[in-house]
Structure formats: C-alpha cells, structure tokens
Amino acid sequence: MPYRYVQLRRRCQQKLDQFDLPRSFSMDALCDSVSRQRGRPLYLHPLPDQAATAGACGLWLATDTDDHIFFEQHTVRLHQEHIVLHEIGHMLFDHHAVDGRAGSPVLSGLFLDLDPRLVRRLLARTNYSTRQEQEAEMLASLIRAGDHGPGTERDGVLRNLGAALGVSGRR
C-alpha cells in the first residue's frame, strides 16, 4: 500500500508539533533548538567529496554523545540548508539504517579516521523511494514552509512535493 501524501503530511506535522522549533527560520537557531531538545551537540560539516561522488548529498552520523550532519558543499546555500533540514528530519523521526553498523563499507570508505564502534547511526541520502526518505523530505519542507495549514499556497507546493516523491495527494 503506498504511503499517501495526506498520511505523510499528517505524520510529519504531528512529529513537528512535538518539537519547539523557532518561529522565524534561521539554520543556527533551528540547529540550536534541535540540539537542546535532543540533549546533545549537533555539528554541521561539508560532505566528503568521496560521499558526493558515491551519490550522497546529505548524511547524518550519530555517535553515543553527539550528532553530525554532512551536506553537499558544491551547491547553492538554499540547497545546502534543505539537505540539513532533511537530515534533521531523520533525527526527529529517529530513523535507523543498516549502513551505520561497525565494519560497514560506507564507514570504512568515507571516515577513515573514525572508529566504527563509536557510530550508533549513519544515514546517507541518495534517493526518496523509502518511507524514511519521504518522511525526512516532507519534514524538511514543512520546517522551511512553516505550518500554514491546508488550503494555502504552500499546501499546493507541498502537494507538488508529494507528487514528485511518488505519493498520492488523494484521500
């Protein structure tokens, strides 16, 4: 059964409602707020070139003590911010991936100086075909757009995003 747009948007809005996000958008304020609410530091880094070459444009790495978001550095700032928002979406949903396990080729190839035993979670964004990726992408768009409710111009933009992600806008 496809993960429909209405269900996707409702789930993402419910998740956002659980967090105290800053009213006006600022990447610094948002990262500070997420860090404070998660009780752990959040660091932003440019994505290593080899990860971008492998097809990733964003990546969330969680250790026992902190979070690290890596974003594509060879793109415009608005796209960089959206990548960070997408990874924050993964954080807020507490998504998991198998690629973060110790000994993973992703870890050994991208983070040569990082002990794989320190990594609790590693998510790399390469496509939007999974529910986790659709949730993270919708959450990123909702954060950027703000909560304007159904029937607004931004709702149309989000419906178009749903269509681009392959989720239905019909009930």
Please give a quick description of this structure.
The protein is α+β, with helices and mostly antiparallel strands and 171 residues long.
3D architecture notes:
- The chain has 171 residues and is α+β, with helices and mostly antiparallel strands.
- The chain has one domain.
- The protein is built from seven helices and four strands; from the N terminus they run ααβαββααβαα.
- Strands 1-3-2-4 form a four-stranded mixed sheet, covered by helices on one side.
- β2 and β3 form a beta hairpin.
- α4 packs across α6.
- The radius of gyration is 16 Å and the shape is globular.
- The two termini are 13 Å apart.
Task: Summarize the helices and strands and which ones pair or pack.
Blueprint: H1 5-17, H2 27-38, E1 42-46, H3 49-53, E2 58-63, E3 67-71, H4 77-93, H5 105-110, E4 119-125, H6 131-145, H7 153-165
Parallel strand pairs: 1-3
Antiparallel strand pairs: 2-3, 2-4
Helix pairs in contact: 1-6, 4-6, 6-7
From the N-terminal CA to the C-terminal CA, the straight-line distance is 13 Å
Strand arrangement in the largest pleated sheet = 1-3-2-4
Fraction of residues in helix:
40-55%
Strand content: 5-15%
Q: What is the N-to-C succession of helices and strands?
A: HHEHEEHHEHH
* Spans of at least 5 consecutive residues with low confidence: 98-104, 147-154
List keywords for this structure.
single chain, 13% strand, 7 helices, alpha+beta, 171 residues, four-stranded mixed sheet
